[in-house]
Amino acid sequence: MTWLRDVDRWFIDEVLPHRQTFRRQAARLVAPGDVEDLVQEACARTINASHHRDIDNPRAFVLTIMRNLAFERHRRASVVRFEHLADLDAMDIADSAPDQFAILSGHLELKRLIELMDQLPPQPRAVVKMRRIEGMLPKDIAVRLGLSVSTVEKHLAKGLAILAHAMQEAPVKADGVGISRLWQRHRQRSN
Amino acid sequence: MEEAAGWLAALDAGSTTPDAFDQWRAGDPRRAVAFAQIVDALEQVERLRAVHEREPAPPPRVERRQLLRAAALAGGASVAGAFIAVQANARESASTITGERRTIMLDDGTRIHLNTATGISWRIDGTSRSVWLDEGEIRLEVKPRPPGSGAGHPLRLIVAGADIRLEAGIFNVRRQPESVGLLVLSGQAALDGRRMVDAGSLAQVIGKSVSVRPAETIAIARAQSWRNGQLVFEGESLDFVVAEFNRYLDHKIVIADPSLSRIRLGGRFTTTDPADLLTALQASFGIRSVRGDTGAITLTTA
After folding, report:
1. Do B292 and B212 share a domain, yes or no?
2. B90 Cβ under 8 Å from any chain A Cβ
3. Model confidence at A172: pLDDT above 70
């Protein structure tokens, strides 16, 4: 896909797999209505980073930005909820979230993915399936379904938007979690 | 997210340029994030391919063609600046090559069948729907407008200067070099805002003059059968038959002997293959057909 820059590739592979952690931490830092916005803002700053290849730990990088942003917001806010402030202090960059040592592929369970596909409206589902799974060209899909190419385009956009939304919420599968757990235990012992 | 998905689909369909997209993405890093999330969703869906391909007859993969098209896009991207402004008023279009037929469904539910060598464009917005027939022949199956969206608003059809309003119904329209023929199979049409054409009538527009008369049975049969790839004749001259056939053929049939032109014949033939016609001509009239070096078929007396 030629329209992906290096930073986009890096963002998809290194940052997006941790989206669950970001949401969870954001929920501890701000009011429920602001969670999504805080995560998006932190991600936006991350994808805009000029030196993304130098970031050793993208996950910690995003979490730090999130904490700083939350701190800024709290400072400006007229009413601050105390439990949020407490969390700001407690939240170490090397946080203790359970998936810290898991190597995340960012992949959903296949079963969950199939469920998400099944929940799409019929036409977007058919178009997404033909385009991405069967590899048909948009104009061939248009002929097959008796639609205009622009309508096919709209259905594809709609289907992908619904999927992407759902995936932000869906838990990701932790690949190789067994190995990292072992390593974690090893580290604890050696400390 | 919806906006980002729209851009990805547009890039995928080739209906926008990478430059226009880059401009949009550069406008706000949140857009880049949303776009990355869409690409991620897309890549996840692709993993289902492995599951899907266990089914019989896996479909061909098209990565190479996608790459080629992406390269073509990148090559033609220099005019992208003006693109977004133009897009709002752009017409959509569809066409067929010689011998091809296809069916298009417009966003308002109207179905358009395109006959051989036909080009149309259309534009549908909140208040109006317009179709242009640039060349060839179409069958329009016009749906009534859904309630609440300017109900009863006719579809506007523009052919060679003729401005036709179509109510819900079925219409066959053919554009020829000198004239436009509108056959109303059902429903009603208004020509240039005044002349009404009812079901079963054929309107011929030549320049500024319009004639409306009841359509012959054979004209209706012909309008009904091209959709199924069939040509119907009922005693027309060989001249006419060959001309009709040639619309569907890359390698045209040529009548070498003028005396043959006056032969009259009838029958039902398939448009994709002139073999039946040539056999019939040989059997009934002793007309020989010779295929030349260029592929053209020449008809001569035996």
Report:
1. no
2. no
3. no
Could you report the predicted ipTM of this complex, rounded to two decimals? Answer: 0.74
Q: Are residues B10 and B123 in the same domain?
A: no
Among B220, B244, B278, identify where a domain stops: B220
Give me the helices (H) in chain A, please: 6-10, 19-29, 35-47, 58-76, 82-90, 110-118, 122-128, 138-145, 149-169, 177-190
Å between B212 CA and nearest CA of chain A: 33
Q: Tens digits of per-residue pLDDT, B170-204?
A: 999 999 888 899 999 999 999 887 789 999 999 99
Q: pLDDT tens for residues A15-72? A: 888 888 888 888 888 888 888 889 999 999 999 887 887 888 888 889 888 888 888 7
CB contact set of B230 (below 8 Å; sequence gap of 6+)? B268, B269, B270, B271
Q: Look at chain B and report how many structural domains it folds into.
A: 3
Segment holding B285, helix H or strand E: helix B275-285
Global pTM?
Answer: 0.46
**Could you tell me if B84 lies within 8 Å of chain A, comparing CB atoms?**
no
Q: What is the pLDDT of residues B12-21, one digit of tens each?
A: 888 888 889 9
B-facing residues of A in 82-101 (CB < 8 A) are: none
In a shared domain, residues B109 and B204: yes
What is the extent of the structural domain holding B25? 2-89
